[in-house]
Design a protein that fits this description.
281 residues; ABC transporter involved in vitamin B12 uptake, BtuC; 13 helices; 81% helix
C-alpha cells in the first residue's frame, strides 16, 4: 500500500512546494511575534481574519459575487489583510490591558463567527475551511498561486531580517516600542498580516497558528539558544514537520494532514528544546 500511495507524492508536488515556502515564512513571523510578546495579539488577529472572511463571504453572497475564485482570489486576500490591518491598530488602542483585551477579542471574534454561521448556514463549509484549511484538497493552480504570493513575502523577510531583529531584541530586552522606526513597524505589520491572512484562507487556522507560534514558544521555554540559533532551529523544525506530516498522510491515507503536522511539530520542538537544555547545563 505504501508503494502504491507513493505515486501521490508526485501528484501533490505543488502542495509540497507550497509548504516548502509557507513553513519557514510562518515560522519566521512567529519568531518575532513570540519574542515581541504578541502571542495573544496574534491569536486575536487570526480569529479576526476568520470572522472577516465569513463576513465578506456573506456580503458577496448577497451581491451575487465571489472574490475567492481564480485570480480574483488575490483581491479577496488583500481585502481580508486590509481589514486585519485596521483591526490590529484598533486593538492597540487598548494597550494598557492588551493581554486580557486580546484574549477577549479573540474569543469574541470566534463567537461572532459561529453566530454568523447559525444565521447563514451556507457559511458552514467556509468556517470549516478557515479552521482546517484545504491543504490536500486545494487545486494545483491554487497551491502554485499561494506559493507565488509567499515567495516575495519571504524575500522581504530576508531583506529586512536585520532591521526586524534589532527591533525585536529592543522590545524583548527593554520593551521600548515607541523607539522603533515607523517603517520597520509598518513593514512588519503589513508582511505579517498578509502572510497570516493568506495562510488562514488557504492552509487553515490550525496550521497557521501551529506553525507561527508552537515551535517558537516551546523552544524558547525549554532551550538556551542565541537569537540566530533560535531562528534557525524554529525554521528547520517548522519546515521538517510540515513536509513530513504531508508525506506521512499521503503514505497512510487514514492520517489527517494538519493534525499530524501539529503532532510532529510539538514532539520535535519539545525533544529539541529538552535536549538543548540538558546539554547546556
Amino acid at each position: 500500500m505504501i508503494i502504491e500511495n507513493a505515486d501521490l507524492i508526485f501528484i501533490y508536488k505543488e502542495t509540497f512546494l507550497l509548504l516548502f515556502v509557507a513553513a519557514p515564512l510562518l515560522s519566521f513571523i512567529g519568531i518575532h511575534m513570540v519574542a515581541r510578546d504578541r502571542v495573544l495579539e496574534t491569536y486575536a488577529l487570526t480569529q479576526g481574519v476568520s470572522f472577516s472572511f465569513l463576513l465578506l463571504q456573506t456580503t458577496l453572497y448577497t451581491l451575487g459575487l465571489n472574490l475567492f475564485v481564480g485570480l480574483s482570489y488575490l483581491y479577496g486576500v488583500f481585502a481580508i489583510a486590509l481589514i486585519a490591518l485596521v483591526l490590529k491598530y484598533l486593538l492597540r488602542f487598548f494597550h494598557r490591558q492588551k493581554s486580557s483585551f486580546y484574549f477577549m477579542g479573540g474569543l469574541s471574534f470566534m463567537g461572532f463567527s459561529y453566530a454568523l454561521v447559525s444565521f447563514f448556514p451556507f457559511l458552514e463549509p467556509h468556517l470549516s475551511r478557515t479552521f482546517m484549511g484545504d491543504l490536500v484538497t486545494a487545486s494545483s493552480s491554487q497551491s502554485v498561486l499561494v506559493a507565488m504570493l509567499f515567495i516575495p513575502l519571504l524575500l522581504v523577510c530576508f531583506n529586512l531580517r536585520f532591521l526586524w531583529r534589532r527591533d525585536t531584541l529592543n522590545l524583548a530586552l527593554f520593551g521600548r516600542e515607541a523607539q522603533l522606526a515607523k517603517n520597520s513597524k509598518l513593514s512588519f505589520d503589513i508582511v505579517s498580516l498578509v502572510t497570516l491572512s493568506v495562510s488562514i484562507l488557504t492552509l487553515g487556522h490550525l496550521y497557521t497558528l501551529a506553525l507561527t507560534l508552537m515551535a517558537p514558544l516551546i523552544i524558547n521555554a525549554l532551550s538556551r539558544l542565541s537569537f540566530n540559533s533560535f531562528v534557525l532551529s524554529c525554521l528547520g523544525i517548522g519546515l521538517m514537520s510540515s513536509l513530513l506530516g504531508l508525506l506521512f498522510s499521503l503514505l497512510w491515507p487514514g492520517l489527517s494532514t494538519v493534525p499530524l503536522i501539529l503532532v510532529i511539530l510539538v514532539l520535535t520542538s519539545t525533544t529539541f528544546g529538552a535536549v538543548n537544555r540538558i546539554l547546556s547545563t
